């Protein structure tokens, strides 16, 4: 039975009284509803110090340095996996998380591939890494008959050259970009073969002159304002751009596709660092986020899919029905999960990415 929204469990209230009256949360930019934190504080008495990042690498650097001071962080599942191996996160106390009963068993089972038994993490949101685009700008340059279906829009130099003047951006994240290039090259997107990664780097170098920039959050504003016309981006970010464009009423229409060659499905996980100053407060926060109406409110604001089955009745019908947010079975069959790179592959990927980024 669903717990009424403000009838937060005694554990949350106890956490506010027994522990420090604040927690520190480190999460992705533009990734929470405007009222979520205030509602948590109202319900529990626990204040939230909230900071943001825009890449897994930035989060990992803070955590690996030690004594981050954060109580809750939100890594993507593959980064979480190797960080668990490094002892960075503590196991969850399920007795403090009654709202786990709302979570989709199938999606949690997929996430368990990165965290056996889901011992350390809970899915916050999930989505895909695809293409956001300015519909009118693309049609003007490629014509009415050009199908907007796949990675050719970014990785094919002949196509990208026609779109360069209106602006193409890539995520500044090799762990997102390289698998997508491999999928476009009809190679295994999860490959760690140095020859495959070199081929992906060369493909990026061929298209590099047509790219405006690499960034993992700027594209949201730039798509909405018409400053760029194509962006490799995370699904919810692109839908935020579309929403902002519609609100601004500047004649900019933004849409999103999951490329036909395949795209990455990812899970962002809520986890608690081993040295969290307030683990009880952190558990209260995770449990609160899993309240169905709270989860739905976040999805309705950020346009990312959630893994909370009880939340779906509160999700806006337009969002629940959008194939780019909750893809159908055929599209899901073409999705691939992230690969966890070993240290050697990680170093190679970093070198190749630096070469692509700098052109040297």
3D structure, described in words:
One of its GO terms (cellular component) is periplasmic space. This is Putrescine-binding periplasmic protein. It is found in: Periplasm. Required for the activity of the bacterial periplasmic transport system of putrescine. The chain is an alpha/beta fold and 360 residues long. The chain folds into 2 domains: 10-121 and 271-325, Periplasmic binding protein-like II (D-Maltodextrin-Binding Protein, domain 2); 129-265 and 335-358, 3-Layer(aba) Sandwich (D-Maltodextrin-Binding Protein, domain 2), CATH 3.40.190. It is built from 17 helices and 10 strands. The chain has helices at residues 10-18, 36-44, 56-64, 77-85, 105-111, 135-142, 152-155, 157-163, 174-184, 194-207, 218-225, 235-248, 279-289, 292-302, 317-320, 329-332, 343-358, and strands spanning 22-28, 47-53, 72-73, 122-134, 168-170, 213-214, 230-234, 254-257, 263-270, 335-337. Strands 4, 5, 6, 7, 8, 9 and 10 form a 7-stranded mixed beta sheet that branches. Strands 2-1-3 form a 3-stranded parallel beta sheet. Strand 1, helix 2 (36-44) and strand 2 form a beta-alpha-beta unit. The relative contact order is 0.19.
Rounded average pLDDT:
91
Kindly report how far apart the N and C termini lie: 59 Å
Tally of domains: 2
How much strand content do the residues show? 15-25%
Count every beta strand, where a strand is a DSSP E run of 2 or more residues: 10
Count every helix, treating DSSP H or I runs of 4 or more residues as helices. Answer: 17
Q: What is the CATH-assigned architecture of the largest domain?
A: 3-Layer(aba) Sandwich
Could you state the CATH homologous superfamily of the largest domain?
Periplasmic binding protein-like II
> What is CATH's topology name of the largest domain?
D-Maltodextrin-Binding Protein, domain 2
Structural class by helix and strand composition: alpha/beta
User: What helical percentage do the residues reach?
Assistant: 40-55%
Contiguous low-pLDDT stretches (5 residues minimum) are: 1-19
